[in-house]
Amino acid sequence: MNMTTPIEKREFKIVGKSVKRDDVLEKVTGEAQYTGDVKLPGMLYGKMKRAAVAHARIKSIDVSKALAYPGVKAVLTHENVPRVLHYGSPHPRSASCTKDQYILDDRVRFWGEGVAAVAAISEEIADEALDLIEVEYEPLPAVFDPDEAVKPGAPILHEVGPGGNLVLDPVRVNRGDVEAGFAEADFVLEGVFSGGRPHPAYMEPNICIADWDGSNKLTVWISTQTSFMVRGILAEVLGLPLTKVRVLVDHMGGGFGAKQDCFQHEFLCALLAKETRRPVKMEFTRHETFVAGRARHPCKVWLKQGFRNDGTIVARDMKLVYDSGAYGSHGPGVTTVGTNAATSLYRCENVRIEGRCVYTNTPITGAFRGYGVVQSYYALDIQMDEAAERLGLDPAEVKLKNAVRQGDIAPSGHAIVGHGLETCIKHGIDAIGWKKLRERDRTPDPKRPHIRKGWGVGCEMHGSSAYPGIKEQGNATVKVNEDGTVTLLTGAAGLGTGAHTALAQIVAEELGVRFEDVGVIHGDTDVVPWDIGAFASHTTYLVGSAAKIAAGKAREAVLERAAMKLQVQVGEIDASEGRVFVIAEPGRFISVAEAIGPSKGIPAANIVGNGTYEPTKSYSFAAHFTEVDVDTETGIVEVKRVIPVHDVGRVIHPIAAQGQIEGGIQQGIGHTLTEDYVIDKKTGRSLNAGLVDYKMPLSMDMPDIETIILEAAPDPGGPWGAKGVGEDPIIAIGPSIANAIHDAIGVRFHHYPITPEDILKALREKDA
Amino acid sequence: MRRFDYHRAETLEHASRLLTELGDDTFLFAGGTDLLVEIRERLRRVRNVVDIKAIPGLSDITYDETRGLTFGALVTVGRLERLPLVRQRYPNLRAAFASLGSIQVRNRATVVGNICRASPSADTIPPLIADGAFVHIYSRTDMRVVPLSEFFTGPGRTVLAKGEIVTGITVPPAADNSGKAYLKHGRRKAMELSTVGVAVSLLMEEGVCSDIRIALGAVGATVLRASQAEAMLRGTALDAATVKSAADKAMEECTPISNVRASADYRRDMVGVLTGRAIKQALETFA
């Protein structure tokens, strides 16, 4: 990795340095506490009975045998849980759409949906009891394809909502005059693109533990990205005030967006605990993370664009259809973000874009890294490549020419800051000698005549924060202890991204203490300030800004106190690395502890800084340059080398940022080549709900990745110009691979995953 | 994980008796890398598990130039994979062992377990069949020896009668004029079940192929021999055109199915590609 161009001539002590992560020792020694490590006296184990039918009404459900089974303590069905219609996601954005879920319904809408829950003294007994629950179904006609689902006469999944199996009214964006644009075009490209159903496959399966105390207060230990949302929806559905629900999250084994829904088992866990008056633990099996977790929305994208002969785009007409599965979940957010994103990346004044989201009798799709944008930019970037091909131009140059830039209208509606995308493309072209690669000798290696080599470039941009869909708010509280150490209280979840380390770096830098002296308290809704949740690549940008504000206030109080002790004016002193010194006389200093600690019978100063930050949005950018080997006999595509060039504004922790980029590339390679959660289109049954046949790339499959992080376009919205990096890397890798495959074998693919069978079939069609 | 009863056998006789007496749903347990997963994933109904790890004499590996390589039922895949002899004389076995699961799995899993599971896609079976290996089977009344190529009767099914236990495997000696290869085809490089696996073991005498065995994995109810393809190749110099025709013949001989891993057509195509490549690789020994 290399970094270039610092944006501000400021000497940083901690920010921009790869300090040792605060959780690294706990994690490598196995001491880190995950929800599954919590063991409470008398704890019961809960399991869910899942439907083996895609669409049906429950005629009867008999739990008598299960209840009588030794060791079983409670069984819940739709007949004895509260019937409260609620949002699938307790997310402010989804709150703008239809409430379409019950904890348990008398109807099943997808294969794998929960129909009953059991609590027993062991996991084994609970599991065995599931077989004793007898459910009689009245099958209903089912629909598995979004195109079929919107046809007149298709089976309707929900009585609520806009109707016709639409999750929300179509999202439409119109700018300029599309017809006039096409009239000006020298040529038009039109194509249909489609995406599979990749699953985040986070390492830690969904899990929660619920316990009610003597005062009728519910405590929930849970692996979630949105602890305050979980608190809110549990309180609402269970009819409790917020003081009676406490949600605790310590370490998490990933989420990738999918852990911001409220899942059936989370309500049922609380209800089973209430019923039995004992703590209850419910943990998904790996199988359940697929059938009852959340995958990316499969999609179909129709894209027609008009181009001039110089490669510029004059009109963009686009329709996107996202498959929401059986419930709405994040469908509205994903559709809105993905549709709006398609206005940008490559500049075009005349756009007409429509996004739809459709219910089908398939497992629920939800939030997932790249939130709707993976799908729309796959289409946009590949068609840009095709335009370059048609004109005989270099695709990198054509993308550079069309790249969004300073002042352009962003998907969020405000002006783009800086020239991030252009800088990434230019930097990548130089760094890898792109021009030479384009002109290389294409004769196959005589030792491996069946291998063809290709290079491709793919571009992306992605927002930090969910503005304008959500008016966000970040909060932080910074307390300075009497020994000069500092405690940061934050509600931001630690998915495993290193977010808490970055926040501690920001606090230490702003306050002028050592990084090691900042402790982070997180994940207890009774203690930390309200938090919106960890999503939208916004934790460093949003909560980082709030932490900087809070630390700044604490710093002012420390300096005031120090000024008295040093007998100077506040303006004459500064703090750094735990010392407050006189600027003109750096040798004259006292420690922060001396400045605020107790002396001569006077107690220590109680210093607390609160920060609240309400951002708009910033955009991060990337161009990925990717090399592939295509085996023309087996159809296997091997990604050999990726040079991801990212602009993320100010980098807080270079190694953590690099880790995010490498991880996103690994996930993106999987989605583009091997990963697809397959639902049988005849029965709705899951065909590969497990890690045996859901093929994620592993370490052996990883290419060389040479990450380049630029600080080219800092955004004033984030701390010292920092922007998000979480979602970006998964977006550009896909089109870069598809474009590289085209470069290798001369075949265009408009879908993912691109399987070996697809490659062979296309090669045969090409030869025929 | 479903509950099951655990029994520890002291001797082969003890294990065999437990298998007979405890009735159906009783399974031998050595590495456990398949069995425990199947119990947890509810793929196999198991009431009793008979641990054979304490039975003496099942962990030996021996080699001599007349009898060949013999290893016991408790010998792990990892141990054989790391054995210099296997590396030098049986590159086909080495390739199969090194492609099975992960390092952690290979350090628990036994080759005999992989064989007795009788999966058509098991990586260790094709090269052992191509090498003409045979299995030693214990029963309380006698011992018998069965060629591995006759051991399987269907997916998950073998010729083993109730109470019979495979105690080990013998692979004939690797001749100096032999060439061997195993090619595994999957979507990723580790932790992968074969989409197709092709093993070739051949003998060359004065530039002519005097014998060849081709075994095909994951393209039938059991691992298959491509005997017609073999017949086309015996007595030839294995020139490119003959190899191509034989590879086409192997495609006709296999009987693949379509599933979520691959279509039948694709599997058949890969039999053709991999048969050609495996013969080429086996011949590299003589290059």
UniProtKB/TrEMBL annotation, chain A:
Top-rank taxon: Bacteria
Cofactor names: Mo-molybdopterin cytosine dinucleotide
Residues passing through the membrane, by range: none
Molecular function (Gene Ontology), one example: xanthine dehydrogenase activity
Signal peptide segment: none
Enzyme Commission no: 1.17.1.4
Domain (Aldehyde oxidase/xanthine dehydrogenase a/b hammerhead): residue spans on this chain: 29-141
Keywords per UniProt: Oxidoreductase
EC main group: oxidoreductase
Protein name as catalogued: Xanthine dehydrogenase molybdenum-binding subunit
Organism: Shinella fusca
Automatic annotation (TrEMBL), chain B:
The EC number(s) this enzyme carries: 1.2.7.4
MF terms in GO: anaerobic carbon-monoxide dehydrogenase activity; FAD binding
EC category: oxidoreductase
Coiled-coil regions listed: none
InterPro entries: CO_DH_flav_C, CO_DH_flav_C_dom_sf, Diverse_Substr_Oxidored, FAD-bd_PCMH, FAD-bd_PCMH-like_sf, FAD-bd_PCMH_sub1, FAD-bd_PCMH_sub2, Mopterin_DH_FAD-bd
Domain FAD-binding PCMH-type intervals: 1-176
Gene3D superfamilies: 3.30.465.10, CO dehydrogenase flavoprotein, C-terminal domain (3.30.390.50), Uridine Diphospho-n-acetylenolpyruvylglucosamine Reductase, domain 2 (3.30.43.10)
Keywords: FAD, Flavoprotein, Oxidoreductase
Official protein name in the record: Carbon-monoxide dehydrogenase medium subunit
